[in-house]
Amino acid sequence: MSWESKVKKTIPYTAGEQPKDRNIIKLNTNECPYPPAPGVLDAIDALKSRASDLRLYPDMNATALVDALAAFYQIDSSKIFVGVGSDDVLALCFLTFFGSGDPILFPEITYSFYPVWADLYKIPYKQIPLTPEMTIDPFEYAPGLTHVKNGGIIFPNPNAPTGVEEPLSKIERILRANPDSVVIVDEAYIDFGGTSALPLIDRYDNLLVVQTFSKSRSLAGMRIGFAMGNEKLIGYLKDVKFSFNSYTMNLPSIMIGKAAVEDRSYFEETTGKIVKTRERFKEALKELGFVFPDSKANFVFAAHPDFSGDYLFTELRKRNIVVRHWNSPAIREYLRITIGTDEQMDAVIKALAEITATAQNTNQ
Amino acid sequence: MSWESKVKKTIPYTAGEQPKDRNIIKLNTNECPYPPAPGVLDAIDALKSRASDLRLYPDMNATALVDALAAFYQIDSSKIFVGVGSDDVLALCFLTFFGSGDPILFPEITYSFYPVWADLYKIPYKQIPLTPEMTIDPFEYAPGLTHVKNGGIIFPNPNAPTGVEEPLSKIERILRANPDSVVIVDEAYIDFGGTSALPLIDRYDNLLVVQTFSKSRSLAGMRIGFAMGNEKLIGYLKDVKFSFNSYTMNLPSIMIGKAAVEDRSYFEETTGKIVKTRERFKEALKELGFVFPDSKANFVFAAHPDFSGDYLFTELRKRNIVVRHWNSPAIREYLRITIGTDEQMDAVIKALAEITATAQNTNQ
Question: B142 exposed, middle or buried (CB, 10 Å; 0-12, 13-18, 19+)?
Answer without folding.
Answer: middle
